[in-house]
Amino acid sequence: MEIATQEYKRVAVMSVTGRVDSATAPELESKLRGLVEADKNQIVLDLKDVEYMSSAGLRAMVSTLKAVKRVNGDLRICSPSPRVEEVLRLAGLTSIFSIHSSQEEAIASF
Amino acid sequence: MENQLSVPGRYDRLEQIAKFIEQAGEAAGLDTVAICRCQLAVDEACTNIIEHGYQGEDRGPIDIECEGGAGELVITIRDRARPFDAQTVPAPQLGDNLEEVQVGGLGVFFMRQVMDAVEFKREDGSNRLVLVKRREPHEPNEAD
């Protein structure tokens, strides 16, 4: 898994590539927590290049979403890959995330 | 194809396990969607074994065996961790209310959702989990 983060004036964009499983999800959660701790509470998570995600990845995303919502921020998803889309749907979590079709659209939504 | 894989219970072996399941699924004639679902179920099962069974990494092996044929893949996973009772796993709390969402228990939930049969057994001092995936010819929307 690789993670790249770009910080704009109001929004931080984190792009994830590769597998998000129990081996790699702790790193994703830690990097997301780092943004929240730095008061970057408006986050776009770009998941278009995620080739695989298990419940460990969902756990990291839900825990970050709860943290940012408490401080009036949000974690918005863009371009989820088909495998990410499927696990979100299987878990019934599509309604708690704001999901956008492109990074530009997700950034502009803040 | 080698139809058995034995690995130490470590999270960094999940990718190797996923590749093994992909090869077994292809050999059994499953389509890509079905193979992805098998990979998810096996990943969740192995994660549970490491996290809840062995209660940490490098505390015991995970043995996986695949038997395929006629569009069906039977995956048997064995571990030597403490007895596992799937009935005691709490169901995940899902839905629209974020503060009430609890994703613990999602692994067993996923296994039951994506596989055609899921059977947990305790035998000879080991936990045995059998996962079955059958080819689904009547799913035109889920073609590759």
Describe the structure.
The complex is a heterodimer of chains A (110) and B (144). The mean pLDDT of chain A is 97. In chain A, strands 1-2-3-4-5 form a five-stranded mixed sheet, with helices on both faces. By secondary structure, chain A is of the alpha/beta class. Chain A contains four helices and five strands, in the order E-E-H-E-H-E-H-E-H. In chain A, helix 1 runs parallel beside helix 2. With 144 residues, chain B is α+β, with helices and mostly antiparallel strands. Chain B contains three helices and five strands, in the order βααββαββ. Chain B has helices at residues 14-27, 32-53, 106-114; strands at 4-8, 61-69, 72-79, 117-123, 126-134. In chain B, strands 1-2-3-5-4 form a five-stranded antiparallel sheet, with helices on one face. The longest helix of chain B has 22 residues, at 32-53. Helix content of chain B is 31%, strand content 26%. The interface between A and B is medium-sized, with 23 and 28 residues.
> How many DSSP E strands of chain B?
5
Major β-sheet of chain B, in short?
5 strands, antiparallel
Number of strands of chain A: 5
Global structural class of chain B: alpha+beta
Write out key terms for the chains shown.
heterodimer; A: 110 residues; alpha/beta; globular; B: 144 residues; alpha+beta
What's the short version?
Chain A has 110 residues and is an alpha/beta fold. Chain A has helices spanning 25-37, 55-70, 82-90, 103-108; strands at 2-7, 12-20, 42-53, 74-78, 98-100.
Topology of helices and strands:
The complex is a heterodimer of chains A (110) and B (144).
Chain A: E1 2-7, E2 12-20, H1 25-37, E3 42-53, H2 55-70, E4 74-78, H3 82-90, E5 98-100, H4 103-108
Parallel strand pairs in A: 2-3, 3-4, 4-5
Antiparallel strand pairs in A: 1-2
Helix pairs in contact in A: 1-2
Chain B: E1 4-8, H1 14-27, H2 32-53, E2 61-69, E3 72-79, H3 106-114, E4 117-123, E5 126-134
Antiparallel strand pairs in B: 1-2, 2-3, 3-5, 4-5
Helix pairs in contact in B: 1-2, 2-3
